[in-house]
Amino acid sequence: MIKIAPSILAADPLNLERDVKAAQKAGCDWIHVDIMDAHFVPNLAYSAETVRRLREVTDLPLDVHLMMDNPEIMVDAFLDAGASCLTIHAEIDRNVPALLDRIRSRGRMAGIALRPGSPVEMITGILDRTDLALMMTVEPGFGGQKLDARVISKIRQLKDMGYTGEIEADGGIREDNLESLVTNGLTVAVMGTALFRNEDMAACVKRLHRIGRGE
Ligand code: DX5
Ligand code: ZN
Fold it and tell me: With contact defined as beta carbons under 8 Å apart, do 83 and 47 qualify?
């Protein structure tokens, strides 16, 4: 069963509680929270305080995606705030395995993310220290971009190597391209624009879950 994780980057920043509650009511499974530092990506988004408040208004897992060059200074703040899963990028110049271990040592899911152009080989040596592998299907930083179909082969590669964690994709996912992701091994679909711009989110989520079941 595919998990649908709406990305709040596409929600109304002045009405996050309303939009997150609507997403939960519509049957979404996780809430994806994009954090951006205006350095790893040319954009700035949200904070640990946002996560803390979201923890108070929804009981859905909070899937926090750190698009940051220096996540080590914020990992504890996001875990204290209630992040269920904390994902860092493999491309940063930091001790990534130690950061993953630190996230797991506090009983949360540790995620590793790759930009579209980064090969899966970058993370094969540390996959055993992760609970989730996030294959970005757009260049991180902005919602509303077109899915990079070349990334589907990276999802397939993770599945074929027997990766047992969650295989997540993020960026440009729509109803009309979800099936190809699912048949190649996707287990969590992050969707922003396609969900929050939809006039009937509940009906859309029902269709997405049906696609996830292969119906
Ligand atoms: C981009 C973010 C994505 C994005 C979702 O850096 O990580 O989560 O908001 O993209 P769309 O809106 O295309 O689903
Ligand atoms: Zn994201």
Answer: no
pLDDT tens for 81-120 read 999 999 999 999 999 999 999 999 999 999 999 999 999 9
Does the predicted TM-score (pTM) go above 0.85?
A: yes
Residue bearing the CA closest to ligand 1, atom 4: 143
170: domain CATH number? 3.20.20.70
Residues with CB in 5 Å of ion ligand 2: 34, 65, 170
Integer Rg of the chain from CA:
16
The CA 137 to ligand 1 mean position distance, Å, reads: 9
Residues with CB under 6 A from ligand 1: 7, 9-10, 32, 34, 65, 138, 140-145, 170-173, 190-194
Of 96, 88, 86, 76, residue with least CA distance to 40? 88
Given the CA of residue 32, which atom of ligand 1 is nearest to it?
Answer: 8
Instruction: State the average pLDDT over residues 2-15.
Output: 98
Q: Which residues constitute the domain of residue 19?
A: 3-212
Query: Does 200 participate in catalysis according to the annotation?
Result: no
pLDDT at 209 over 90: yes
* pLDDT on residue 38: 98
Residue 21 carries which DSSP code? H
Is pLDDT of 68 > 90? yes
Number of domains in the chain: 1
- Number of other CB atoms surrounding residue 179 within 10 Å: 15
